[in-house]
Amino acid sequence: GFLVFGFTDYRVCVYALMLIFPFSATQFMPRQLLGITGLNPFNMLLGLALVSFTLKRAFSRGELHSVPSIKPFVPMALALAAGTLIGMGSVSKIPLFFHLLSTTLFETAAQYTRDVLIKPMLVFAYVWMVACAVRDSKNVDRWVTGAIVSTVVLVLFILMYIARSGVSLAALASADSRTFMDPTGLHSNELGVIFLPGFAAALFAFRTAQSQGKRILMIFLGGIILIGIALTFSRAAFLATTLLVVGFMILQRQLIWILIGAFLLTSAVLFAPDSVKDRATTGFSQGQVGGRSDPLTAGRVREIWMPLLPDLKRNAVLGGGVHATYWTDAALNGSIAVGHPHNAYLRLILDHGLVFGSLVVWSLVMMWKRVRACSQDETLSPYVRGFMQGVGLAALAFLVQCMSGARLVLDEQHSVYLTTIGIALGLAPMAKEAVDPKKAVRRFFRRRSLGR
Fold this sequence. Notes:
The protein is mostly helical. Helix content is 67%, strand content 1%.
């Protein structure tokens, strides 16, 4: 029945894709079906959605909306293509050690191209399909709610994983348990990256929702996501969440909200479990950044960043290719034992250099502007505008999380951001008109004349 509905209306497939998209970055999502690599629920749904959409466009007798623009993704796609060409010749240099750590690590240039170029293009196709579905929908609110719910579903799976493990909060917060989440396919810091925009969206949507039901729903969903953030024990996620709440208070510009925010932050400090407090303050009272004892950066400065400096200088212009950390001199001589530099900014330069890295930044700026334009578009409902404002602010807080990991090239770990960009692209014509001063003036006088 689902396949029939999905075939007749591609939006059904796209909505299902949105709900399972966060799982694409985890081991919860099957990597293959029937022994065929790449044949998984996400790709199957995406293929069905594309076929259904194409048939609708080809045989529809009614008026069709224009297809959304993919312009914001073009620079990032070019950077990925260049990074693939530069890096594919170095795949054979990857030390055996990394293959022993990960059985899914690419071993040939063809596998490398599949993982670092074709797979991201499928993700971009998903975003475009979200944009098309939103443009063909009258009710945008359901897409906004779905984006938040998709984060909550992943949080619930993580909570079940923790509960079944039987691990205590104190053990989970320990520095020795930073790899506890690895069996899920994601590090704790990466889970924090996924959860943050979902919480931000729920927080701002709660503030702008006009119905009591939606406000209660946002409190419930936001609370679950906040629990998920706390259980990552990621200091980067803690800091980004704090900055997000502070930004929320400032943007409200009302004393009551500032007081509520201050009360919540104070309550979190006073009543949070000791394990959360200990993890949040690790490194502030002992050790030295870059020294032999460096709990603040978990030894990243001395053990990862400094050994990578010669490779960063050598790859500063064009980069060494996507995932270049695997074949750096530091990796080849055993100075480091990690597959990425645990810093998104260093990773961008190491992989793409200043030239192609600037294309990635250009894409991110265009995407953020689209989201921000939607947050200011008065033709949209306050609920949608609040959602956009929350995710836009989370994107700024995400820059703090980039100091300890993640990456700036968008992939499944940025699921809520990508879904939001898709929604924004679907609404782009309205948002563009809303921020165009000339059109705004003409619309103002047109409404005045009609009022007469």
